[in-house]
Amino acid sequence: MSDRHLQHWPSGVPRSLDFPQTHLWANVAASAARHPDKPCLVFYDSVVTHGQFRQQTEWLAGWLQQVAGVQRGDRVLLCTQNSPQFAIGAYGVLRADAVLVPVNPMNRTEEIRHLVLDAGAKVLICAQDLFDQVAPLLEEGRRTGEGLQHVLVAAYTLRSVATGAPAKTGRVRVELTYDSADQPFASVAAQQDAQERAAAEAARRIQLELAAWFAEQPRP
Length: 220
Hints:
This protein has two domains: 23-157, Rossmann fold, CATH 3.40.50; 167-220, 2-Layer Sandwich (Double Stranded RNA Binding Domain). Helix content is 44%, strand content 15%. It has six helices and eight strands. It has helices spanning 26-34, 50-66, 84-95, 109-119, 131-144, 184-216, and strands at residues 39-43, 46-49, 75-79, 99-102, 123-127, 150-154, 158-159, 166-168. Helix 1 packs antiparallel against helix 2 and helix 2 (50-66) crosses helix 3 (84-95). It is globular and about 60 Å long. The mean pLDDT is 85.
């Protein structure tokens, strides 16, 4: 590597970094010890404190090790939208001394199959709205004894800010078709376009359903 840039390096600024020799999850433990009741995640009106975050990641790590049989260095796939479940899932995998393999939530069954085989993963964490893409792989894995053996499904629940009780749950299914071209890149582009339209349509339906539900609720 060239060192020509060093002649312009500011004086008094270190030329190298010393990284702490600690596990990434140690940051979670340290924050929970220092500030257990302070917010760690704020997702809309839902707050997860540092103490709660540590507890939930340890619960998940325990399930991975004791139920799913995850051992040090095993790959665990994580497929959720941007949400507290993703953060808890990621740090739970790290707490179990496993290797995190993030999965694009827009991936379809065959794309996820490739990731499972490529990573040699037997465990996957996914969001409830994505389970339909994973279910065939779990069924196949348990039938053959190869591939996926365990899937943990994360649920999204709308809760009342006042009481914390679940306010409404639901499920939206969207199916779209697309034309596949002869050229590979065109086919991929067509598939991605269909996935984006499906996600947008699902979001639109959820918004309409929630708007109708909120309109029916009594005003304080």
